[in-house]
């Protein structure tokens, strides 16, 4: 199909415009402020809050409900989780250098082998958090 954009003497070939474009599949927990989410394609996952192997720099998760979120092997440098609900969240093998978890709810969270260097953990109850082999060098604790 060819459309004419000017007079018949000066024809230009213009590709046809599709009449219908399908809507993009987006989960209810889509964060448009995040610039790059690696190859996770988490919006297509049935599980909510799926950030497996995500690459997020200075991501803002302040006051978010991230119940059972999966940040396995994620790179979350300087991420802000201030007062976020991270109950039963998985941060196994995650890089969380400089992350802010101030006053976040981390009950049952898993930080096995996580790098929490210079992370802010003030006001956090760590009694029910799995910190096996976690690197807490320079982390701010109460």
What would you note in describing this structure?
With 142 residues, the chain is low in regular secondary structure. The chain has no helices and two strands. It has a domain at 50-142: Pectate Lyase C-like. It is 0% helix and 3% strand. The N and C termini lie far apart (69 Å).
Main features:
142 residues, little secondary structure, Pectate Lyase C-like, 3% strand
Note the run of SSEs as H and E.
EE
Q: By CATH's scheme, which homologous superfamily of the domain at 50-142 applies?
A: E3 ubiquitin-protein ligase SopA
Please count the helical segments.
0
- The poorly predicted ranges are 17-46
- With strands numbered from the N-terminus, the spatial order across the biggest sheet is 1-2
Quick structural overview:
With 142 residues, the chain is low in regular secondary structure. It is 0% helix and 3% strand.
Question: What does the secondary structure layout of this molecule look like, with pairings?
Answer:
Elements: E1 120-121, E2 140-141
Parallel strand pairs: 1-2
């Amino acid at each position: 199909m060819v459309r004419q954009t000017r007079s018949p003497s000066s024809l230009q070939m213009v590709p046809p415009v599709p009449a219908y474009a399908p809507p993009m599949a987006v989960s209810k927990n889509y964060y448009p402020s995040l610039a790059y989410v690696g190859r996770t394609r988490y919006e297509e996952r049935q599980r909510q809050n799926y950030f497996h192997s995500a690459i997020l720099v200075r991501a803002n998760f302040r006051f978010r409900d991230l119940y059972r979120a999966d940040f396995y092997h994620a790179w979350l440098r300087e991420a802000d989780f201030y007062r976020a609900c991270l109950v039963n969240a998985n941060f196994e093998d995650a890089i969380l250098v400089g992350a802010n978890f101030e006053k976040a709810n981390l009950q049952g969270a898993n930080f096995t082998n996580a790098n929490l260097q210079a992370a802010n953990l003030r006001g956090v109850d760590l009694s029910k958090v799995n910190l096996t082999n976690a690197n807490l060098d320079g982390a701010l604790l109460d």
